[in-house]
């Protein structure tokens, strides 16, 4: 009743092939039957001369056959007394016991509501005790390592239920792409363990984010992609993939399983929808499933028939026959047997849309097999009753927090999905799909889910207990309990606080990050009780209801007021000021709450001055509840406004001409095929409107479209445009602020998965040199605009990651400036390795727009990252700022733009107090405006302001509620 009262999900009843009591007693009965049969066999041998036809001819291995048949009805799970074990099989003998004292322990138990204050004792790879621990447990040991948590939070290690770590290993290369197979739609015999790369640079990064256990899945390019495995991310002394496995099946390498041991879970990856197009359409895909499961059903039925005869003692009828099995189909046969723990099964099913979810649910009922979890599941929140019809019980739903709209089947994804699923008693898992999202920031997915309404206990459970349970591993990981694996994380702040960073991470009781010898400062600037509490978040009830009502596509319009608008209970007002530090000035802060009034978008009065404003003139009032008013933010780097759906070519601009591969059409009379992003601009895209509603009112977009795995394939990426994200069309006043913002080029090595090799880096540099030295006539587009760049008329933005290539570009800049007597405006975008030459970049007066702000070694050009705490003291951004570089923060994908303010907040939170909030604001506003030379266009009327209810720009407690636009003489209310 307590769970019902709190609105927490309850376990759904599971359909079963046999009653539970029957399943539990069958192994015992079979053991007795085996003994009786063996005695009967001895009787046959003793009396076969006188009574040859009264008994069956019992084979010598009858006990083995009976045991194998009995195993068909066992369920996977830990051995009896598992929690009382003394030593983990993963224990390494030189590991010292560890005592973490004075901790606030979130155990993950009781649906994530249990919190214990006290100590945690780790020894021999397991959790020996937690809470109030008697000293007698460890006082006789003289080798115990003691850490004082000083009241900080301890949680179980995070569990990432959907990862391709080790199969798409960093840095990404063609030689490490072991995630999909082209050998057919149905491949249940493939195994992720067989492609797992132990040299993946992502292991340590994920651990640095508190992730200790991952389910490594084959890709989603096949209907049945193969078998998945659970891995611990700790690299062992054995150095093998096998040694990193968590509870592999007993028969992993084809050895005969011990049928007296409890079964271990096997995991399978399935997929449906768009990713299977190489093998046909949706109808083809579902037929491939039905055909495969029918084949598996034949084998299962043959096994049942064989064992029924064994049960009946009809040995003569199976004389000369072998137990029916097929190595290719054995995994699917296991699926059909529906082995389960409660309602959690073994299939992870990639599935986005209502149609696909319904297809798979019908399939489960046709062949009577369960699903452990649906993954991605962008529309699962729209069909909770369909999910509940899954045979065997309702699956968990593993989803992204805000990564939506990247292809058609994800278009209706919603940030409110986790809360809506939870309200329908459906288990919620937040996942990374690493490297689509960097697994290091798995916890950020839970933080965002909490921000948009998922209760804190469920948000934390979504990356610990729920995925562990879905994988059948909750007896070992995901829940902090006696006898579980010694995987714990000590955090510098409450785990749901934005920017929460592990101080220390243990896997199997072995410290992985946070050694005192590393001398990395963690958590400086996060002192005080506020950082140790669950963050308060806004109320999204109205928006959540609208999302359901409109099936994921609610209207995103605003109410526009051209008259006088009063904001009450304002805690802070920040405005642009070119003369102030960072280009920003605070009008009041820390002086109590007051009113602020705008008339036609222009500031009329602040605080006490507003008492004289005639109330009859006020057309609208908003209570900010201690919130703030600050400059609108700016997004840069994504194709925002150039396309609607990244993976749907029909919604974008189309392919550019690449003059390195073929001549541009003669009709252009331009060898470079120079084009303008303004000509392809689309207004009213959902990504742009959601970006606007998140407080990002300006965007600069180019045609240099990148992907998860590679930069843009085009060296010459055209001319970018700066526009207002909330405008309705290009002819609306103020919609396009600067139709030609910068000239964009991409300089990189060949992407690992590109269909064609790029021309060499040396060729790309040679082409830039020629073009900047009047290589083309100035009456052509390419000649004219490269001349403008060389003269310093517009910025040259270079998408580049490698420090070596950046060094070459700095030399090229010197060469061009000396030859032409000019000062070029050069900006490095992406710039993963820029910290290695930060002082040289500053000396050359070159700006940097980092993307991502929290780096990852995606490709060879990106490999030398500066990871930040808990691995390094400096971040790339801190290193650049300290060197005097003007820095902005950008994004790669349009769906990321609404998260701009949180990306900026991270720069403060992981800097150990070396980056201020004012600097963070500048990274995504005035610094970008300066680097792209759009400040005078934006700031000529003061620029847009955003009103936040409940907090400041970077607070999880705050919610953008209005945009104040003096340039358009109005206030927009969301």
Automatic annotation (TrEMBL):
Keyword Oxidoreductase: no
Residue ranges of domain Amidohydrolase-related in the record: 153-508
Family annotation (InterPro entries): Amidohydro-rel, DHOase/Allantoinase_Hydrolase, Metal-dep_hydrolase_composite, Metal_Hydrolase
Keywords: Membrane, Transmembrane, Transmembrane helix
Transmembrane residue ranges: 25-44
Coiled-coil annotated spans: none
SUPFAM superfamilies noted in UniProt: Composite domain of metallo-dependent hydrolases, Metallo-dependent hydrolases
Gene3D superfamilies from the UniProt entry: Metal-dependent hydrolases
Pfam families given in the database record: Amidohydro_1
Protein name: Amidohydrolase-related domain-containing protein
Source organism (scientific name): Rhodofomes roseus
């Amino acid at each position: 009743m307590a769970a019902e009262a709190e609105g927490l999900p309850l376990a759904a009843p599971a359909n079963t092939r046999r009653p539970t009591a029957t399943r539990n007693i069958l192994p015992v009965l079979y053991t007795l039957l085996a003994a009786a049969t063996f005695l009967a066999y001895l009787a046959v041998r003793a009396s076969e001369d006188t009574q040859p036809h009264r008994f069956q001819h019992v084979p010598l291995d009858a006990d083995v056959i009976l045991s194998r048949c009995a195993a068909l009805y066992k369920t996977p799970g830990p051995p009896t007394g598992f929690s009382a074990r003394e030593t983990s099989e993963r224990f390494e003998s030189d590991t010292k016991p560890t005592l973490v004292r004075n901790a606030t322990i979130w155990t993950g138990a009781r649906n994530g509501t249990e919190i214990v204050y006290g100590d945690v004792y780790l020894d021999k790879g397991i959790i020996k005790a937690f809470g109030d621990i008697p000293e007698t447990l460890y006082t006789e040991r003289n080798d115990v390592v003691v850490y004082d948590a000083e009241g900080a939070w301890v949680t179980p290690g995070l569990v990432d239920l959907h990862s391709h770590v080790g199969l798409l290993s960093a840095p990404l290369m063609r030689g490490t792409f072991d995630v999909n197979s082209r050998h057919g739609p149905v491949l249940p015999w493939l195994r992720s363990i067989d492609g797992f790369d132990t040299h993946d640079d992502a292991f340590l990064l994920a651990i640095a984010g508190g992730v200790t256990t991952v389910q490594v899945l084959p890709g989603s390019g096949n209907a049945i992609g193969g078998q998945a495995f659970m891995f611990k991310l700790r690299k062992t002394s054995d150095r093998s993939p096998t040694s990193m496995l968590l509870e592999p099946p007993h028969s992993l390498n084809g050895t005969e399983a011990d049928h007296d041991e409890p079964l271990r879970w096997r995991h399978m990856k399935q997929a449906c929808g768009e990713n299977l197009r190489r093998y046909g359409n949706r109808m083809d895909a579902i037929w491939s499933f039905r055909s495969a499961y029918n084949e598996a059903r034949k084998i299962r039925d043959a096994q049942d028939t064989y064992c029924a005869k064994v049960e009946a003692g009809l040995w003569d009828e199976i004389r000369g026959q072998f137990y029916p099995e097929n190595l290719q189909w054995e995994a699917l046969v296991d699926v059909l047997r529906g082995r389960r723990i409660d309602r959690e099964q073994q299939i992870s099913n990639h599935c986005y849309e209502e149609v696909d979810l319904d297809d798979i649910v019908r399939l489960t009922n046709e062949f009577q097999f369960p699903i452990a979890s649906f993954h991605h599941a962008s529309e699962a929140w729209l069909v909770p009753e369909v999910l509940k019809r899954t045979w065997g019980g309702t699956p968990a739903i593993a989803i992204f927090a805000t990564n939506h709209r990247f292809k058609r089947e994800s278009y209706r994804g919603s940030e409110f999905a986790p809360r809506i699923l939870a309200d329908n008693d459906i288990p919620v898992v937040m996942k990374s799909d690493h490297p689509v999202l960097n697994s290091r920031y798995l916890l950020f997915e839970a933080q965002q889910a909490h921000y948009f309404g998922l209760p804190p206990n469920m948000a934390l459970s979504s990356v610990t207990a729920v995925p562990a349970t879905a994988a059948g591993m909750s007896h070992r990981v995901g829940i902090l309990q006696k006898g579980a694996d010694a995987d714990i994380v000590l955090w510098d702040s409450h785990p749901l606080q934005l920017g929460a960073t592990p101080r220390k991470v243990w896997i199997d009781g072995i410290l992985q990050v946070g050694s005192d010898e590393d001398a990395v400062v963690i958590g400086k600037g996060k002192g005080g009780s506020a950082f140790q509490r669950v963050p308060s978040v806004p109320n999204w009830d109205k928006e959540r209801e609208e999302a359901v009502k409109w099936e994921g596509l609610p209207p995103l319009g605003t109410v526009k007021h051209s008259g006088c608008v009063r904001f009450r209970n304002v805690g802070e007002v920040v405005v642009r000021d070119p003369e102030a530090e960072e280009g920003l000035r605070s009008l009041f802060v820390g002086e109590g709450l007051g009113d602020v009034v705008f008339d036609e978008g222009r500031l009329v009065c602040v605080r006490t001055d507003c008492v004289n404003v005639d109330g009859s003139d006020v057309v609208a009032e908003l209570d900010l509840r201690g919130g703030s008013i600050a400059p609108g933010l700016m997004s840069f780097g994504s194709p925002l406004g150039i396309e609607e759906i990244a993976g749907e070519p029909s919604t974008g601009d189309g392919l550019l001409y690449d003059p390195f591969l073929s001549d541009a059409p003669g009709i252009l009379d331009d060898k470079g095929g120079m084009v303008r992003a303004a000509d392809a601009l689309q207004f009213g895209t959902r990504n742009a409107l959601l970006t606007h509603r998140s407080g990002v009112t300006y965007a600069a977009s180019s045609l240099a479209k990148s992907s998860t795995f590679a930069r843009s394939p085009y060296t010459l990426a055209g001319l970018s445009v700066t526009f207002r994200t909330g405008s309705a069309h290009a002819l609306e006043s103020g919609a396009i602020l600067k139709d030609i913002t910068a000239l964009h080029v991409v300089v990189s090595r060949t992407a690992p998965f590109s269909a064609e090799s790029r021309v060499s880096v040396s060729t790309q540099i040679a082409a830039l040199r020629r073009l900047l030295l009047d290589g083309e006539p100035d009456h052509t587009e390419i000649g004219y605009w490269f001349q403008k760049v060389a003269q310093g008329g517009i910025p040259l933005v270079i998408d580049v990651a490698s420090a070596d290539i950046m060094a070459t570009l700095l030399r090229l800049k010197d060469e061009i400036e000396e030859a032409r007597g000019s000062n070029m405006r050069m900006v490095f975008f992406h710039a993963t390795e820029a910290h290695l030459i930060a002082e040289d970049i500053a000396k050359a007066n070159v700006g940097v727009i980092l993307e991502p702000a929290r780096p990852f070694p995606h490709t060879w050009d990106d490999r030398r990252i500066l990871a930040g705490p808990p691995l390094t003291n400096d971040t790339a951004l801190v290193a650049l700022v300290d060197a005097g570089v003007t820095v902005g923060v950008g994004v790669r994908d349009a769906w990321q733009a609404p998260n701009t303010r949180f990306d900026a907040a991270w720069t403060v939170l992981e800097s150990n107090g070396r980056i201020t909030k004012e600097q963070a604001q500048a990274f995504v506003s005035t610094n970008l405006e300066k680097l792209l030379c759009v400040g005078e266009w934006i700031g000529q009327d003061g620029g847009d302001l955003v009103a936040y209810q409940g907090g400041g720009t970077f607070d999880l407690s705050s919610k953008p509620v209005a945009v104040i636009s003096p340039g358009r003489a109005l206030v927009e209310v969301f």
